[in-house]
């Protein structure tokens, strides 16, 4: 089995796509007006309008109602990313901080309130752990 993607359900696909294009530095693919994908080498971030939810079954997802998932992306210079993102991130949760498990991380919210973690392994143990993941 291969991990394929994470999908965010939203009421405003264009707003969220524009935000994630800035964060990820890639252009989205739009196979339908109510759906977009941002493809990076390690995964795909899909964004779907709430109109797509009934296709998966009633009550399967609610837009802008995430309280338990953190979307994480590994970066290669967390402090440079922080400076790059400061102009358009409205809600910072944590500025770059070295965590006890060896990652330097920062957390912020996307326009729908979803929590985003960008991190960089910085200790020898963390670098070794992630070197096995490609």
Molecular structure report:
It comes from Bacillus swezeyi. Keywords: Metal-binding. With 134 residues, this protein is an alpha/beta fold. It contains 3 helices and 8 strands; from the N terminus they run βαββββαβββα. It is globular, with a radius of gyration of 16 Å.
Index terms:
134 residues; 8 strands; alpha/beta; single chain; 2,3-Dihydroxybiphenyl 1,2-Dioxygenase, domain 1; 2 domains
Summarize the structure.
The protein is of the alpha/beta class and about 130 residues long. Helix content is about 20%, strand content about 35%.
Strand tally, please? 8
User: Approximately how much helix is present in the residues?
Assistant: 10-25%
In DSSP terms (H or I, runs of 4 or more residues), the helix count works out at: 3
Relevant CATH superfamily of the largest domain: 2,3-Dihydroxybiphenyl 1,2-Dioxygenase, domain 1
CATH level-1 class of the largest domain: Alpha Beta
- Class computed from helices, strands and strand pairing: alpha/beta
What is the H-and-E element order? EHEEEEHEEEH
**CATH architecture assignment of the largest domain:** Roll
Sheet with most strands: 4 strands, mixed
Which fold name fills CATH's third level, the topology of the largest domain? 2,3-Dihydroxybiphenyl 1,2-Dioxygenase, domain 1
In spatial order, strands of the major sheet run: 1-4-3-2
Task: State which percent range the strand residues make up.
Answer: 35-45%
Mean pLDDT: 94
Q: How many angstroms separate the termini?
A: 17 Å
Kindly give the count of domains.
2
Overall outline: globular
Alpha carbon gyration radius: 16 Å
State the low-pLDDT regions, or none. Answer: none
């Amino acid at each position: 089995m291969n991990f394929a993607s994470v999908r965010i359900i939203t009421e405003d696909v264009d707003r969220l796509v524009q935000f994630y294009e800035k964060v990820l530095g890639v252009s989205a693919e739009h196979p339908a007006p109510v759906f977009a994908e941002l493809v990076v080498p390690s995964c795909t971030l899909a964004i779907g309008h709430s109109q797509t939810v009934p296709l998966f079954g009633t009550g399967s997802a609610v837009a802008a109602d995430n309280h338990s998932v953190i979307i994480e992306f590994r970066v290669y210079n967390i402090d440079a990313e922080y400076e790059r993102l400061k102009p358009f991130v409205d809600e910072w949760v944590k500025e770059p901080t070295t965590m006890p498990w060896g990652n330097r991380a920062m957390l912020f919210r996307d326009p729908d309130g979803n929590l985003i973690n960008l991190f960089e392994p910085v200790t020898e143990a963390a670098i070794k752990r992630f070197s096995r993941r490609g």
